[in-house]
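BUG-277 | component: ligand-complex export | severity: low

The export step for phosphoenolpyruvate jobs runs without errors, but we want the raw record kept on the ticket for reference. Input record follows.
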Amino acid sequence: MKPFKLASREYRKQDTIIEINTGDKPILIGEGYCTVIAGPCAVESRESYIDIACFLKSAGVRILRGGLFKPRTSPYSFRGLGVQGVDIMLEVRQLTGLSLVTEVMDARDLDVLYDHIDILQIGSRNMQNFSLLEEVGKLDKPVLLKRGLSATIEEWLLAAEYILSGGNQKVILCERGIRTFEPYTRNTIDIGAIPLIKQLSHLPIIADPSHATGKWQMVTPVAKAAVAAGADGVMIEVHQEPDRALSDGKQSLTPENFLDMYEQVAKVAALNGKVLN
Ligand code: PEP
Ligand code: MN
């Protein structure tokens, strides 16, 4: 068998489909579906988060992202609202019915996030934070596991194995680009990882073209490429005023650009026989 066991196709031939049950009707993530997750990099304020959430809801989005704990390279950059932002996310969920995804950086925050958040994101920088992986492995909550900054496919699947072997079977992988020698883009998207993961594993895989490229102009073409290569969805950063965003403005789509991206991705999904959700 492969070193990753529970994550492997050998262990489970059938594709894993993860059901999110918080909205009006279940959202399915996995083979046969194309799930578009969208939202700002970070929750910045109550007003702006409500505003973007209402826009995304009207566009057809069902899962909203928003970072409360931001893993910033510099400690002097905006690091998120932290636990204080949980109430804002909750209010937005009540108002819109959108399901929520946010990054957890520290196991000590799981208590407060568990009751309110529908998908827990493990960020790239924490892909090999094994104690954090063990903690989310004990929960019955979907986990969005991003590929580490320089992680091989095998390291990534072994990180998923930490969660699966703890008992949590709801793991969604997310290709968000890797570090290479190329400085023009923030990261280098590994499109080939998508069909490869589909061969090696039964787990759903989505792509994050925002962090993979670092440039809003590249987000739509790379999102289309990922879905064409078999991704089960995309996660996209959106901001009303990207120039004023407190983080990742350069890679954030305006609402207008988001609508264009959504339309184009929907066409690629339809061509591939995927149900958009
Ligand atoms: C994010 O999604 O906000 C994020 C920080 O992404 P990554 O961990 O992929 O850098
Ligand atoms: Mn970001």
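Assignee comment: Attached the raw record above. Residues 41, 67, 71, 103, 123-125, 146, 176, 208, 211 surround phosphoenolpyruvate (ligand 1) (CB under 6 Å).
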